[in-house]
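Pilot study result, target chain (202 residues):
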Amino acid sequence: MMRERLLSALAQEFRARIPQFRLNSPDYQMILYAQRDLETWLRIKWGAENPYAVQRRLEKYLRGDYKEQEDFRAFLNVWLGNWLEKWRERVKILPKMPKVPSKHAERLEKAKRLYREMDHALELKETVIRKLIERGEICMTGFIAENMIVNEIARRLRRQGDELKAPRLDPLDILNSLMPKIERLPKEKGPLLFLKVGIYSL
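Predicted structure:
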């Protein structure tokens, strides 16, 4: 029930800002992205132990008295404005995904497998998300964090015969390597994520 209420509130905010926004179209995916990012952002900002703690607190605001609901709508209005600004900055919509050279594609696929198999992969991703949010990132932080980690693993791969192999992957070492890139992000305004056409291109 909380999720439906939150999605409905987000949908109203989207429609108010983007008249051509259509819920019964692929544009709806943007609401799902925003909902996920909002819950992640609140979890970090509130220091919540898990997503359920965030959902319980959101339920209180969404089902509260008139003032609580109005206060939450005012917060959501500001938050979504910031999210849309970051969407325009960090997400690039393409008619189709660019063709990646086969050797680079192979390297990325190997890096993704190693990431999924790596010890403490979720903790590493959570820490990168936290660092991104601390530096003002608000949009698609989960996707951006995962892309950064996978690209860092891909950078470490070395070819041995027909195989790509990586040295032992230490999550703390990977985080330390990513920190300078994360620190520079507030000064860099280019896209960090590419999506295929199918949602509204702001």
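One observation from the pilot: The first helix runs from residue 2 to 17. A full batch analysis is planned for the follow-on phase.
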